[in-house]
Design goal:
This protein has about 90 residues and is mainly α. The chain has one domain. About 75% of the residues lie in helices and about 0% in strands. It is elongated, with a radius of gyration of 14 Å. The N and C termini lie far apart (about 35 Å). It comes from Mucilaginibacter aquariorum. Keywords: Membrane, Transmembrane, Transmembrane helix.
């Protein structure tokens, strides 16, 4: 999976897991009482993003790791702004 060392590819990798979490929990499980906390699925997705970051750092792909980190921090900020303050 990690073969190219590219910042934009890392940002793309970092946005995939939170986008899937948003699709699953916003569109499919909207009326479900699956979780009591509204931001929990997104925070789990951010945790999975950090595991993805670890694998790219272990493969010595510094630019890809930086892209994943940028996307993770951006998603964390978005979750905090939109879910915690509503």
């Amino acid at each position: 999976m990690f073969k190219k060392n590219n910042l934009y590819l890392g940002i793309l990798y970092g946005c995939v897991i939170p986008a899937i979490a948003w699709l699953v929990f916003s569109l499919l499980l909207k009326n479900s009482s699956f979780l009591d906390k509204p931001a929990a699925p997104y925070l789990i997705a951010i945790g999975l993003n950090l595991i993805l970051l670890r694998f790219s750092a272990k493969a010595y792909l510094d630019k890809t790791s930086n892209g994943i980190m940028i996307a993770t921090f951006a998603c964390t900020l978005l979750v905090f702004v939109f879910k915690m303050h509503t």
